[in-house]
Amino acid sequence: xxxxxxxxxxxxxxxxxxVAIMSEKIPRTICAMFGGGAMLYCGxxxxxxxxxxxxxxxxxxxxCGMMILIAVVKKSGFFRLLALWAMKMSKGSPRELLVLLSxxxxxxxxxxxxxxAALLIAPMTISLCRMLHIIPVPILVSEILMCNIGGTxxxxxxxxxxxxxxxxxxxxxxxxxxxxxxxxxxxxxxLVCILxxxxxxxxxxxxxxxxxxxxxxxxxxxxxEIFNRSLTVxxxxxxxxxxxxxxxxxxxxxxxxxxxxxxxxxxLNPDEIMKEVDLDTLMFFMGLFVLVGGMENAGVITAxxxxxxxxxxxxxxxxxxxxxxxxxIASAFIDNIxxxxxxxxxxxxxxSLMGISHADYMWWALATxxxxxxxxxxxxxxxxxxxxxxxxxxxxxxxxxxxxxxxFPLMLLSLFIAAAYIEVRYFIL
Length: 429
Description:
Shape: globular
Structural class: mainly alpha
Largest sheet: none
Order of helices and strands: HHHHHHHHHHHHHHHHHHHHH
Number of helices: 21
Distance between the termini: 52 Å
């Protein structure tokens, strides 16, 4: 087969895999594994290359370790405690409850991961709203936005960040220092807009003092011993992420250590906890890594990088904003995980061709674009799909068009805030 035929065959395999993932008619893991397998059978990637070079086991280990750790923390009742605390602090005011639950969601998405935060907070929100006799949709929409925004603040919050951190020299502290400030600004701006958009759906009322006093926050703790031990391990694991670079450890080592230590000290049944490990997601990542590796070996990534540089006449300033807005708009309509997997080697090639290998602002443009962009539509990120599905089960249907009408403008606002932040912090200052 000629070189040009191989080039276009690799593109065809990639595009077909993407279309299959977007169609949602075939499970996305099967699509990714078929795409990766096609790259192997067509000779773009060897098995040794797939295992040693392209499959990022640091990302796989980090996700696996955090899944185990959070499964243990869930057993403690900690997340229900946070929901009851928000109810008591808001005194039943729908507006205050929206703000507090949104902040809890944002922090949870950053410190655990956005998908887990969505799975835990949505049922609690519906239950709390039922107690207050209010429609949960405005609060759920705000929480969806906060899952993707809050998860951007730390390396472990959103899958795109996990992938970027694992594939580059950037560590946990780099993400915290560079992304947390813009996340705080976007959270504030988004909450103001949400409160204005749903001002008619959020009545001004409060619970009586007797009802507030009757809320027993401590009743949420299912097992005091597991609660204390699992939260201690979680705190130590977060601390481990902060200092892991100083000891030459990978983030996967910290996460897996935290997960297995929590499992051991809490005395839980490993078989039960291991059921919480989402093998489907881990296999999806593996297939994607091989798929993108095939594109890289076929020369497609380098060709696209050269085209992008020519498009902006080699202006690294414009390339940064091209990455930001392309990532944001694309991630609104396609899963931001495969998009990020494709963009990482593309940006590396761009930096190499332009001789700016440490232009870290490009990575921050990709992280904010991919994570914030997930808020644009119902299918942009996993938390969106999860929360909309949970709401539908409770009789609160949110259509694709309605979701986009509410959230796409807020997604664009977050991208413009990110652009202004990058401009001021990295190009002006």
